Amino acid sequence: MYKFTAIVVLLIFNLATPGCLTESIDDGEPVKPEQYEYTDDGELVIVTYDVYGLTDEMLERFENQSGYEVSLLKLDDSGSVLDHLLQHKGLQVADLAIGLDNTYLQTALDNNVFWEHNALLNNISDSALQPYDGPLAVPFDQGYICLNYDSEVVDGENYSVPTSLWELTSDEWKGKVAIPSPETSSPGRAFMTATTDYFAHDEDNQSEWTDWWSAMSSNEVIITTGWSEAYETRYTGGYGEWTDGHVGDAHIVVSYCHSPGVESWYNGNWTKSAALDISRSSFHQVEYVAAIEGGNLDSASAFIEYLLTPEINSMMPIENSMYSALEGFDLPEENGYRFNSVVPDEPANVSSATIAKNMETWLEMWNNAMVDA
Amino acid sequence: MLEMKFKFSNSCAVLAYTLLVILPLWLALDRLIWVAGPNPIDWLSSLERNYIAQGVVQFTFIQALLSTLATLAIGLPIAWQLGRYKWPLQSLTKAILTMPFVMPSIVAAMGFLHIVGRAGLNIRIDESTWFLTLIIAHAWFNMALVIRFCEPVISTLDPRLEEQMRLLPAGSNKIRRFRNLWAPLLAPSIAAAACMTFVFSFTSFALVRWITLGENTLESVMAGIGSSAGIKGYMVSRNEIVLGSSMIQFTILLLSLVLMSWLQQKRQSLLPQVSEDIVKKSNPRGWYVIGPGLIFALSPLIAVFGASFRIRNTDSSGTNYTWETSGWEYAFTSSSSMTSAWDALYNSLGYAALTLIIAVPLGWILAQTILDLEEFNPKMARALDVLTMLPFAISSVMIGLGVMLGMIKIDAEFFYSFWPTPALAHVMITTPFVVRIMLPALRSIDPSYDECGRTLGIPKWKRFIQIQLPMLRGSILVAVIFTLAMSLGEFGASWVVTRNSDWTTLPVMIDSLKSIPYNNSLTAPAACAVSSVLMGITLLLFTWAEKFRPARDGGMF
């Protein structure tokens, strides 16, 4: 019997001790650059998600030029990158984070997970610097999130091209609109952010942005986990219709204003997808690269500098399907890339500080709106 | 002296098991509660306040229930035919029909997606078929449980018993014989199979993730939001959802397992048994059941293999398909954005080997401990029995979260550079299986053999090698192969743990390849190519297990 008493004691011992391991996260002041402590181990660990721009060729070139050895830690999406950084606060395993956008950046900044880089940079466009212009993160690409529609279906006869978000709550669009969830997807989050601004400025001052989402929820809006499920699996207007597992029940989808341009680029100047420019319903998204606290600041800075050279950054539209962050590099004109891309007249105007301050509340409100409908 | 040593090893096994299983889980729980607050009512209600989690409890229950019914509907006729009648290539037939259970769920997901996809039945386009696809996929996966549980009971019952029944009023016709002989005889086995099927369907992740888009089980919800769990003051509601989901899972699974443990004891047959050869007759009409069963068991695998060579070419003139090996080349070529299938293969094999080395001895000794305890403290034996089933009650995603949060907390840098880390999750998952396999085997050894040996003055270690080991050989092999197969195919926990690292395993790689957006026409064939590799290894292991499986009368696996 003594053995089992021992087992029970051990069990209780096990259950009791881990509590001591829990410690609070220190939210103190950010460390000053003079106090940064790190060693240059000749390596660069990048935490990122599927950023297509990080091609083998491009990484190899950096390795050859700089002598650093690069390894990638690939996560699912922009949100997972932020999660990773917060999870490992003070215990970071990577040196450089690539792919946080301006809906996530401020939360990372508030939590002091970045260090000031020492890369020499110039010629970054004003628009890319507009959401954040500081030493802790550098924009490397940008684009606008907006609604796309299948112009073969939405041809003015069967369906009319919507001119306001409210129209999407009509019977006509029941179950025909796909939106990535703001909970799990950065384009989804950007679009939700845009709707807060859209409904704060729409003509009738009665309705809240949450009312629209409730109405959309009742109208069987398709909420997907990520962008690819919305665009590839659900949307009828994109390349997804050629892939296995395509469902094709949505004629409108949240994607980028230049997605039709990308379609056209790959299809030899042909696309049936078009971007919808409704005032304040689009969102200017900027993606950032940043040196992680406690990491190798030298290799991180070297990569930031490399990523922002005109040679590499001008390739963003082709390699990464996004606009360059540098001044003077637009989308290429070949194959109708630029022609089929829309630059919105009036994107939503929400500051990064507002986003960071309200994001959790917004997500809660969004959930309530969707559930209550 | 040896007696003492053995007891010491028992305690060590229990201690090791407790440390390996309880510690990581406690760390995770502790951290989640630290963020979410200690109120279980909040945890549960958070499920209904969240758009993604809303309705998930109902969905999880309903699909698990329907999957269980479908599994019985498909599995029972097959088990009956297999048990009652003679079949050409009997062991091969049985092997094919029970093989789906050891197939990794992600391979099953890929297989079913291709069966219902464009090149197959082409019903994927209709969203209303997704739920049914899921149920059928679960039935495919679990029908082996029904066969394994019920077939031995049917195939070894002394036919004289049924003959005697015919003479009695209670057994004068088929219906009466069914009611008075087969139903009471099979009920515990059917219930046990149903119970296990329910558990596996309830915690289904890979199949739900890929087949029913937009619907979630508690398991897939936890997996989806788990990456933001455990961060103080950030996304608090997600911690509540994880806690709420795991609480419901834990309760349901624990109940099932207690029931299972009880049924296992009921299943110990007291009726006269004879060899299969005496029981079985031939039955040509049975092919109407066995034939479709074989096709059903094989088709997802054939679909996966076929799809790995089918390359889509899209240009302005439309889409056509060609048969090429470029999907395989793509999968086995390393790039910075995707590790090569070679690396994933090495990782997978390494983790499987490591899991084997730890889980099999551990499970074996634990099973022996349970048996030793049964003699003088049955209550304690039952408690340990349930404790060893605990990881069944804690879903693999939760185990993954436990390992992840635990290692971040203890020493993130060390664990990220410590290659064996993911194997810990596999050990946690496979050890209970080893216990389940070894327990009935150990129980079936007649103690009189050992007593004879003792009378003859054979020392304990020699008795172990010369008596116990040969008698257990079959079960040990089955345990070894099951451990390898489960570790190789493990998806949920690996998905959570290896996401933050670069040790991709084969199942995780399949998932990543399938998730790559953009119009790269090679990713889908490459996902199928990696699936085929995983499938091949699993098949090899399984055939090996079948070959060495002794003609045993009964047993769970």
Topology record:
The complex is a heterodimer of chains A (373) and B (557).
Chain A: H1 2-16, H2 18-21, E1 43-48, H3 56-66, E2 69-74, H4 78-87, E3 96-101, H5 105-110, E4 114-115, H6 126-129, E5 138-150, E6 177-180, H7 186-200, H8 209-218, E7 222-224, H9 227-234, E8 252-256, H10 259-266, E9 273-276, E10 283-292, H11 297-307, H12 310-313, H13 316-320, E11 323-324, H14 352-372
Parallel strand pairs in A: 1-2, 1-3, 6-7, 6-8
Antiparallel strand pairs in A: 3-10, 4-10, 5-8, 5-9, 5-10, 5-11
Helix pairs in contact in A: 8-14
Chain B: H1 2-36, H2 40-49, H3 56-84, E1 85-86, H4 90-98, H5 105-116, H6 130-156, H7 159-167, H8 174-202, H9 206-211, H10 218-225, H11 236-266, H12 276-279, E2 281-282, H13 287-307, E3 310-315, E4 318-323, H14 326-331, H15 341-376, H16 378-388, H17 390-393, H18 396-417, H19 421-444, H20 447-455, H21 460-489, H22 492-498, H23 506-515, H24 523-548
Parallel strand pairs in B: 1-2
Antiparallel strand pairs in B: 3-4
Helix pairs in contact in B: 1-11, 1-15, 1-18, 2-11, 3-6, 3-8, 4-13, 5-13, 5-24, 6-8, 8-11, 10-11, 10-18, 13-24, 15-16, 15-19, 15-21, 18-19, 18-22, 19-21, 19-22, 20-21, 21-24, 23-24
Task: Report on this structure.
The complex is a heterodimer of chains A (373) and B (557). In chain A, strand 1 (43-48), helix 3 and strand 2 (69-74) form a beta-alpha-beta unit. In chain A, strands 1, 2, 3, 4, 5, 6, 7, 8, 9, 10 and 11 form an 11-stranded mixed β-sheet that branches. Chain A contains 14 helices and 11 strands. The N and C termini of chain A lie far apart (59 Å). In chain A, helix 8 (209-218) runs parallel beside helix 14 (352-372). Chain A is globular and about 65 Å long. With 373 residues, chain A is an alpha/beta fold. The relative contact order of chain A is 0.18. The longest helix of chain A is centred in the C-terminal third of the chain and has 21 residues, at 352-372. Chain B has 557 residues and is mainly alpha-helical. Chain B is globular, with a radius of gyration of 24 Å. Chain B is 75% helix and 3% strand. Mean pLDDT of chain B is 85; it is low at 1-5 and 552-557. Chain B has helices spanning 2-36, 40-49, 56-84, 90-98, 105-116, 130-156, 159-167, 174-202, 206-211, 218-225, 236-266, 276-279, 287-307, 326-331, 341-376, 378-388, 390-393, 396-417, 421-444, 447-455, 460-489, 492-498, 506-515, 523-548, and strands spanning 85-86, 281-282, 310-315, 318-323. Chain B has 24 helices and 4 strands. In chain B, the strands form 2 sheets. In chain B, strands 1-2 form a two-stranded parallel ribbon. In chain B, strands 3-4 form a two-stranded antiparallel sheet. At the A-B interface, helix 1, helix 2, helix 3, strand 2 and helix 4 of A face helix 1, strand 3 and helix 18 of B.
